[in-house]
Design a protein that fits this description.
With 413 residues, the chain is α/β, with parallel strands linked by helices. Helices cover 38% and strands 12% of the residues. The chain has one domain: Alkaline Phosphatase, subunit A (3-Layer(aba) Sandwich). The radius of gyration is 23 Å and the shape is globular.
Amino acid sequence: MRPTRRDFLRLGLGSATLLAAGKTVPLFLASSARAAEARAFGGRVLVVLELSGGNDGLNTVVPYRDDDYRKHRPRLRVERNAVLRIDDQVGLHPALGGLARLLEARGLAIVQGVGYPNPSRSHFQSLAIWHSAREDPTGATQGWLNRCLGQRTGAAGGDPPALHVSDAELPLALSGRELHVPSLTRVEQVRRRLGLPDGPAAKNQRAALDQVSAEPRGAPGSHLQFIQRSALVTYASSARLEEILRAGHDAASYPPTGLGRRLALTAQLIKAGLTISIYYTQLDGFDTHVNQVGTHPGLLREFGDALWAFFDDLNRAGQGERVLTLAFSEFGRRVAENASGGTDHGTVGPVFLAGPGVRVGLHNRHPDLRNLEDHDPKYVVDFRRVYAAVLDRWLGCPSEQVLGAQFEPLPIL
């Protein structure tokens, strides 16, 4: 049985290329790149940042005047004189100077009290709910972002519709059987995963590619022609990506952290004109059961400083207007601190949206710390209302089809 075009897409030969026209790219590949540019979400980009482990929302967006907060957190509370105040009730943790600068620059929206009905305190289960956008994610193999991409992605050619910028396993949010999303943190990974040579062998392949400037051999539309095109696109795309990554970035503007490096790489690809519509990365370590004072501030600083540097970089390059960042965690932490100087798995937490297109400031009321359910605050807004806003108003994907039900988009964009 001869392979079909869908077989190649499933293997990632079509969707996993990173292509832009250049002197090493044959003319027919350059035309494919131009076609890709015309179809990619109107040029808009979504960057999703997962704060993995369950971020303590109460010590992130701090209700510093709430006596119940102070009562439940005798050792872990953020003192009033240290909070970066947003209003006369709520402020940011002092380590979130980067987010405070984004807020001052009118580039940050904070959605308070985000959760879902019948919350799970299991990392695996709650992540599956957020990633699939289903209250019962049992057996889910496709995530909400993959469903959106599947609706909008047309013919193969050009760049992949999404990229996972991480060494971690591909998240369910991007997963699906039909549409493959590649992962990347270094150009060396591209060479290994595509089986591309290095050194003199790489130069020989580049020379061979330079000689190919016309249509591949074979009858138009034949499987042979498609295979030839796929192989050339894959190699040319990797070569172009290598040029982009080797060119580097203004490292001085980014903090020397894992998230800083990943967002710097993401900014490089955006500024290079690739038509990737969705980037996804993670910052791990938020499962702060023990010694939260010693770990949580550093994580928040890494998050805030990297996000500020990312948008500062994009805005200086004239690219910030078309980028939106969504940052979330699978759940929050308990209201009361534990005996180990930490906090245990909770339910609700804040969601952050950054970019020039957001409605700036706080959205919804802060969770009521007196009206608890099983020792946790009740959620104020369903996370799928945030997703609906991103889908309908940023990416242009029909949210009802992606989410499987109708959720009123939250007025945050």
